[in-house]
Structures are given as structure tokens and as C-alpha cells.
Amino acid sequence: MDNSVLSENLRGIANQIRERIERLTYSKRDRRALVLGGIGLFVLLAYVVFQFFSSRNEVLERRLKMLQEDLVKVESLKFEYIESRKKIEEITKSMTGGDEDLISLVEKALIGAGVERGNFSITSRSPSSGDMYDEMSVDVEINRISLGSLVEVLYSLQTRPSFLKISNFRIQTRFDNPDLIKASFRVSTFKFKRVI
Question: 30 lies in which domain range?
Fold first, then answer.
């Protein structure tokens, strides 16, 4: 409906009400009471409408504040995700990805520590797979090694730039020569399947 038509209809209704009031025989005092009652009713109606919209406004302001807090949380989670992804990429780059065979890596460490080839054996294990990575491992058995040489072997494996894990570590003193020990352990490396 057009605003001009609406305003004409309202003026017409107001004029009809005014004519009917004038036709009735009201005293000046009664008319004043009617006008004050009408003004009071209008003020009450305006207050109710204002209260409705102001309470609605408060609800919207609270929702806006909650959404802004959620946005701050999402931004912090986004930053945390980016940092985690960078760390995962750094770890992935540091892990061996088939550049150097695990058996030859362990063999170099053993020979570098002065262990003779006849005193150790390295057995490859079948790769095991996780959700996000593949694990390649070898079992190492050393028959005759001094404690100092064993520490040197373990140190050289752990200080490599690639990520290696040593597990299932067992040592026994040899009965024929108490200065030498028999040791066995597993050396593992990991390769991520994909970066999230």
C-alpha cells in the first residue's frame, strides 16, 4: 500500500472520530479527560513498542558479542593449526624418506664404533603401517662389544639429522669375558603418508 493512501485513510478515521466526539454532548472537563486518557494510552502503547524493540536489541547485542568471542576463538585455532602444520612439515623433512637405507645406516654406525663385521647381525623387519605414517625397522644383535663402543653406537644413531627411534634394548654381560657385553635393540624410522 502506498504511504499517501495510508496517511489519507488515517486522517479520514481521525476526522470521523473527532466528529463523533463533537456530536456527543461532553462537557469540557469530560473532553479533557478523554484527551488525557488518549495521550496516556498512546504513551503506554509507545512504551510497550519501545520495550519490545529494546529487549530485542539487547538479545541481538548479546548474540553479536558471543559471535565475536567465537570469532576470536576460531582465529586462535587457525593460528594454532598453521603452527602445527609447520611443525609437521619440519618433522616430515627431518625424517628419512628412503634417502639412505636403514640397514646401511646402522652398519656404518657399528663399523664407525669399531665393531667387527662378524660380531653383529642386522635383520630387516617388514614395514608396519599406521594411520598417518609407515614404520621401517631393523633388529640389531651385537655379540661382542664393550660398553663404551655400545654407547658410541647409540650416540651416533641418536644424533643423526634424521629421526631414528631405538627400542627393545637388552644387554647381557658375557660369561667368557666380563668386559664385553651382548646387546640387541631395534632401530626404527618413520615416514609420513601425507601432510594434513
Answer: 3-71
- Which three-class secondary structure state does DSSP give residue 113? coil
Rounded-to-integer distance, Cα 118 and Cα 123, Å: 14
Both 66 and 108 in a single domain? no
Residue in this structure with the C-alpha cell 635393540, named with its chain if needed = 185
Q: Which residues in the chain belong to E strands, given as ranges?
A: 120-124, 128-129, 133-146, 165-173, 180-192
Give residue 162's pLDDT: 74
Cα separation values, 165 from 91, 92, 147, Å: 14, 15, 20
- The span from the CA of 70 to the CA of 58, in Å, is 18
Q: 19-23, 51-55, 150-154: which has the minimum mean pLDDT?
A: 19-23
